[in-house]
Design a protein that fits this description.
It is a single chain. The model has no long low-confidence stretch (mean pLDDT about 95). About 10% of the residues lie in helices and about 35% in strands. About 30% of the residues are buried. The chain is built from two helices and eight strands; from the N terminus they run E-E-E-H-E-E-E-E-H-E. The strands form two sheets. The protein has a five-stranded mixed β-sheet. A three-stranded antiparallel β-sheet has the order 2-1-8. It is mainly beta.
């Protein structure tokens, strides 16, 4: 699945996977050494993330039910926690610097494109 920032006309990820079960949401990116430059993990039913026992930093985008960006956390490092975003429907975990490189801002609208 691709993730597109429709507002900015940029691609956030060419290959995104979805964590939508209790186990996959809990596991997230744990156990991995890194995340690829074009990868993302979408975690459903999530309003905050933690980086306990992670081995690398990530960027995180918090998205509401209308696919609107309501929160951004750049370069969150291992053993840190994100703020809690009440209206979040899902989060997108990305490689560090992806938010800056794509110009993503709060209020942007995202598209999850599974046709590719």
């Amino acid at each position: 699945m691709r993730i597109i920032n429709q507002t900015r006309q940029t691609i956030l990820a060419g290959t995104a996977t979805v964590a939508d079960t209790a186990f996959s949401r809990l596991k997230g990116l744990l156990g991995r050494e890194s995340i690829g430059a074009d990868e993302a993990l979408i975690i459903t039913q999530c309003r905050s993330i933690h980086m306990f026992f992670m081995k690398f930093a990530i960027d995180v985008i918090f998205v509401d039910r209308k696919h609107k960006v309501i929160g951004l956390v750049e370069n969150i490092r291992p053993f840190q926690m994100s703020p809690y975003f009440w209206r979040t429907s899902y989060v997108i975990e990305l490689p560090p610097e992806k938010i800056r490189k794509t110009g993503t801002r709060t209020g942007d609208v995202l598209v999850l494109d599974s046709s590719s």
